[in-house]
Specification:
290 residues; single chain; Endonuclease III, domain 1; TATA-Binding Protein; DNA-binding; 3 domains; two-stranded antiparallel sheet; Endonuclease Iii, domain 2; alpha+beta; 5-stranded antiparallel beta sheet
Length: 290
DNA sequence: TCAGACCCTCACAG
DNA sequence: ACTGTGAGGGTCT
């Protein structure tokens, strides 16, 4: 009784699906049988890239595929964004090394919750925690016959109703009260995530900073990856290393100096530039550890 | 403004 | 095989 599959092909250019889905902005994509699988908007989704085409499959009838095009940001003009990057050597190297890297447009709650779980964690560990969280508290979604079950990301309510111990059992440690407190604030209506779409970046950031466990870095991740504020520039240890090495190789720059630099040097799409630097840095570290 | 603490897991020495 | 140690997309006090 294989559920019916709905398919669509998208024409794409300058899109490196693998780089995009593994670049640390989303944590639920897996490569399997030559395709990328995940759950987006509570739907099982399978994506395959073949040169300048994506083939997408779901099991739920889609009147249109706008939700997916939006998530993948298929409509944006990448060359135009790249043209706003500063014309310097580090940026040219990063762009050359990460051809087709994109920013996704994710669900704010899933993004916020995932990045609360990310603090002082490696990407594989974040994936592990998110997987456990979805398995235990998320709603089952339809999958192809014979597959292991998959789950939607737990809703605000599904998290808010748990206990701190329930969450700690997902290996998230001291982040458990942060996630729980955040879910409960949203459930009580103290902050409306949907409203932030119409806000200025400063107002939206101020709202996100009200949540426990959310500081400047995580707030900027959510502003960038979920709300599309492309000036947001999350500064983490990797970006610190990148800025230090690439822009201040001779002398040691102070944290404050680097943060200031990040907000002035990279232009209107600074967040996009950040993603290129981040990915470039991780690639370089993998090639030559230490 | 600034260390420490915070949970937990893995990789890597010894 | 086993224990010890350090560090990992930060934030809070």
């Amino acid at each position: 009784m294989n559920p019916h599959r709905y398919q669509k092909a998208f024409a794409v250019a300058d899109y490196d699906l693998a780089a995009t889905l593994t670049s640390g902005q989303a944590f639920r994509w897996r490569f399997r049988d030559d395709a990328w699988e995940s759950v987006v908007n509570s739907r099982w989704i399978c994506l395959k890239q073949n040169r300048n085409q994506f083939f997408a499959q779901t099991l739920v009838q889609n009147d249109d595929w706008k939700w997916l095009a939006d998530y993948l940001q298929l409509e944006i003009d990448l060359p135009k964004i790249l043209s706003t990057f500063p014309d310097d050597e580090p940026m040219r190297a990063a762009v050359a090394a990460c051809h087709g890297l994109r920013l996704l447009r994710q669900d704010p709650w899933e993004c916020l919750a995932s990045f609360i779980l990310s603090s002082t964690k490696q990407i594989v560990q974040i994936q592990q925690i998110v997987t456990l969280l979805c398995e235990r508290f998320g709603t089952t979604v339809a999958v192809p016959t014979g597959r292991e079950p998959m789950f939607a990301f737990p809703t605000v309510e599904q998290i808010a109703q748990r206990t701190e111990a329930d969450l700690r059992a997902c290996k998230m440690g001291f982040r458990a009260p942060y996630l729980l407190g955040t879910a409960r604030m949203i459930a009580r209506g103290e902050v409306d995530l949907a409203k932030l779409h119409g806000s200025s970046v400063e107002d939206a950031r101020a709202e996100l900073l009200k949540f426990p466990g959310v500081g400047r870095k995580i707030a900027d991740c959510v502003l960038l990856f979920a709300y599309g504020f492309q000036s947001a520039f999350p500064v983490d240890v990797w970006i610190m290393k990148a800025l230090q090495q690439l822009y201040f190789p001779k002398r040691r720059a102070h944290l404050k100096r680097l943060q200031k630099f990040s907000q002035t040097h990279f232009g209107p799409n600074a967040g996009y530039a950040q993603q290129y630097l981040f990915h470039y840095m991780r690639m370089k570290m993998n090639e030559e550890p230490r």
